[in-house]
Amino acid sequence: MKKYILILLSFSSSFIFSQKIESHKLTKQEIAQRELENLTDFPIYRAFEFSDKGGVYELVLGENQKTISKKDTLNTKIQAVCVTNDHGGFLEKWRINDLLEDTLPKEKNIWFWTKYCSTKDIDGDGYIEPVIVYGTRNEDGYIRRVKIITVYKNKKYVIRAVECDFDNCRSFEKDQSWNTLPQKIKTYINQLTEKMRKEQNVLLKNG
């Protein structure tokens, strides 16, 4: 009987644990209901809510939409902010800021590559590891920079890439601490990088 109860409790605990790992994209209405507009300096392009063993989080991706036309929206700055609910207010956990660089040819647009962003528990430890991906495009229409940022235990692990026609101006660099990430996360990011190479015709390599 005791063994049966133990198994039942173990099953119930596993079920409850699995229920805590949730993530979904927020609608404009949900963004307004949660009063998330003031979390970022820019208009919200996309927002997510996710929950894990650490609590419930709101993640907003803001783009400043410097130029808006019928054909395209061009940004000069972006900002990602992740917060938790704290006694009726928001407690910031981390943020990401970036902007166009002064290069030749000039960078013209910077944007969140939400197709490759994710809010998943990649390594199965009960905590979600957000992956934020964004890129820049120059005035000739080519992708220039790509950044892949993995947030693990509220610390950012960054991959920085510069695309270029010439070997001496092309680069692909990982933070020195990147190799300290769990193997499951490193494998996931390596697979994501390979997917981007195939789908976006980018090199993402040194030289």
Plain-language structure description:
It is built from three helices and 13 strands; from the N terminus they run αβαββββββββββββα. By secondary structure, the chain is of the alpha+beta class.
Short description:
InterPro entries: M949_RS01915-like_dom. About 20% of the residues lie in helices and about 45% in strands.
- Shape designation: globular
Label the structural class.
alpha+beta
> Main beta sheet: strand number and arrangement?
6 strands, antiparallel
Instruction: Tally the helices.
Output: 3
Radius of gyration: 20 Å
Average pLDDT works out at 91
Report the strand count: 13
Poorly predicted ranges: 2-19
Q: How are helices and strands ordered from N to C?
A: HEHEEEEEEEEEEEEH
Oligomer: single chain
Q: Portion of residues in helices?
A: 10-25%
Q: Give the termini separation.
A: 66 Å
Strand composition percent: 35-45%
Write the layout of secondary structure elements.
Layout: H1 2-20, E1 22-25, H2 28-33, E2 44-52, E3 55-63, E4 67-68, E5 73-74, E6 77-86, E7 89-99, E8 107-112, E9 118-120, E10 129-138, E11 143-152, E12 155-162, E13 171-174, H3 183-200
Antiparallel strand pairs: 1-2, 2-3, 3-6, 4-5, 6-7, 8-10, 9-10, 10-11, 11-12, 12-13
Primary descriptors:
207 residues; alpha+beta; five-stranded antiparallel sheet; 21% helix; globular; disordered N terminus
